[in-house]
Amino acid sequence: LLVCLLFAVGAHAGNVLDSNRYLDHLLANTLPRFGGLSEGFLNGFKFKIKKTGLTNRDLKVQFTNGKVTGLLPPRGLRRLGDCSAPTWQANNITVSCYVTLDGLAAVYSGTYKGDNVLGQVKDLTVKGDLRGAKAYLEVTASPGAQPSLKSWSVPPFNLQLTLSRTPDLNSQRRQSFDRELESNVKQALNSFLYGPLQYALANAVRVDPLPMP
Question: What is the CA angle 118-124-127, rounded to 5?
């Protein structure tokens, strides 16, 4: 009889599959419906690349109207590997998971001038696809209580930049341009990931109960 009871308890205990189902539903259904975030807006930025001789001018670059695409299914945030099984931590239920952010991209419209001596203003569109991007999250709740987002962290990630046109720059200035552009787009994305996206997740995790350990 004791063996049967132990087997019954174990059969109904929460496991990795329960956590996986919880996160998949959260990201595919609850977050789009209750997160309040269908499109992400990014801060604008500008930078300058100094001239290197008489045949060029300071390159002045300005980007506005930045946005994040790929937030909603079928792209959007997706589970990366298995979540942890539901566990007890200080009398609270906790589930931890990794999610991939590789479905997201930053898109900017902007202008630049100074790649020739005439100083013509030229339009430029940039898309930055996240590569090797992931985030770690923990959701916790006391039994019967509303869950909350306990942890959200995004390690450094790579960007694959695609430009609508290539400024006419020598190798030294092109390297500086690429470096400044990538740095500014990453900074804007991090502000979004730790701002509006984290806030949307915090709202969404309150909706569905966590699986029991």
Answer: 155
